[in-house]
Write a structure and sequence with these properties.
single chain; mainly alpha; 14 helices; disordered N terminus
């Protein structure tokens, strides 16, 4: 087992090319979270416009409020596409046949493993914020309804060039999912595995299960835990652990909850349950509602009841 406290996050020459590609994406991730956290929505303006359909000034106010917000929602959606591409590059590097096993990969490519962890941390944080913000879907639905009304009445719509119909459909589907970023990554990981048939699937699942184990060990071992300098580090580790479990559950033929799974699910759930409840409810919900195999017949009853 490699020692997480000795990690080096500077990329080696071999890692440099992929690291640089991913770094560009991660540099924008913080800004995306800040914008999402500050996203207030146009609920007030929309309500007034709907309640007073013949008041043109109110219709215009609502439209003026919604158009820039849709620009933001489009930006978040486009970022999800960049994130998926970054994930592909990382999986390609971390699962290649360069080293004999996963542990070697993670030991020798620590900078890439850290970036992978950062992507998962961003993803779960994004989805936590999105889940608690109903304005996002309301704003987007209002935008689409208004746009189609304007089309019917041949009113030239400013911002029409922002989001064409096909893109609007894709954005709509993206936000309709409870955890849109996680879905993007799960689909992306599944796609990676199916596009790389020559690569043993274990290369990918072992990479994910090893990362889950490392997070669990760091969180449950007092000696490691005492080295965490802040609660931020704890929540980082928790989010990464849950993220890799969900990806593993999507990619592995029998999933993360089966007897043959290489992830100690009871141990991972226990670690989550040992945290202050309000800090992990979102993560427990992610395991309850966004995994693929939890409700399989073969899932151990204890695990099911731990998540009830």
């Amino acid at each position: 087992m490699y020692n997480p406290s000795h990690l080096s996050y500077l990329p080696t020459d071999a890692e440099r090319e992929v690291w640089d590609q991913v770094d560009v994406v991660l540099k924008d991730a913080k800004g995306i979270l800040d914008e999402l956290q500050a996203y207030k929505g146009a609920g007030q303006e929309i309500r007034e416009a709907i309640q007073n359909p013949s008041d043109e000034a109110l219709q215009e106010q609502a439209w003026a409020a919604v158009v820039p917000l849709v620009g933001k929602l489009k930006k978040f959606y486009q970022f999800s596409q960049r994130l998926e591409a970054a994930l592909h590059s990382l999986l390609g590097a971390l699962t290649s046949e360069t080293y004999d096993d996963t542990t070697q990969h993670l030991e020798r490519e620590q900078a890439l493993a850290k970036q992978f962890a950062e992507i998962l941390h961003f993803t779960l944080r994004f989805d936590e914020l999105k889940m608690t913000n109903p304005a996002i879907q309301n704003d987007f639905s209002y935008y689409r309804r208004t746009l189609s009304r304007m089309r019917i009445n041949n009113v030239p719509a400013e911002g029409e060039n922002e989001v064409n119909n096909e893109l609007a459909n894709r954005i709509s589907l993206f936000y309709a999912d409870a955890t849109p970023m996680l879905k993007t990554l799960s689909d992306g990981t599944t796609k990676f595995v199916s596009e790389n048939k020559n690569l043993p699937i274990e290369n990918t699942t072992d990479c994910l299960s090893t990362m889950a184990t490392v997070c669990k060990v760091m969180l449950e071992t007092p000696e490691y835990r005492s080295r965490f300098t802040s609660e931020e580090t704890v929540s980082f580790c928790l989010r990464v652990m849950v993220g890799v479990i969900i990806l593993y559950d999507y990619v592995h033929p029998v999933g993360a909850f089966a007897k043959s799974s290489k992830i100690d699910m009871k141990g991972c759930i226990k670690v989550l349950k040992d945290q202050p409840p309000n800090s992990v409810e979102g993560l427990l919900n992610a395991l309850r509602y966004t995994t693929k195999h939890l409700n399989d017949e073969s899932t151990n009853k204890t695990i099911k009841s731990m998540l009830q």
